[in-house]
Description:
InterPro entries: GxxExxY. This is GxxExxY protein. The chain is α+β, with helices and mostly antiparallel strands. The chain contains five helices and seven strands, in the order H-H-E-E-E-E-E-H-E-H-E-H.
Amino acid sequence: xDVTKSKIKDLTYLINGAAxxxxxxxxxxxxxxxxxxxxxxxxxxRGLQFLSEMRIPIAYKELSIESKLRxxxxxxxxxxxxxxxxxxIPPIDEARLISYMKLLKSPxxxxxxxxxxxxxxxxxxxxxNDYYTYLKD
Length: 137
């Protein structure tokens, strides 16, 4: 099946549901590792394929560089997700997610910050790039 914007939208809905379920049950104020484990469980419950703590491959010109960069989740080989449990998302975390998306050729990325009262309105930022722009509707 071809990847379409509609498929990305449906997948985003499932991922958002998983994050909201975790936040609804746990609330803010816990360690990121707790949210990470519970989020992975919710993704499994929804039948989604994902890699957790995936090492990011870096290709620079003709070089393949081994790095210690890891993204929290790479879901269905399409959406990059980073989890946080902090006061606010600093610009460097946004830049890191955008770089991960580029390196993974991921059309969409989401940062969830679980240290908020309302995850849906305050605790999520979504990003798209050129890989998304060129998808069919």
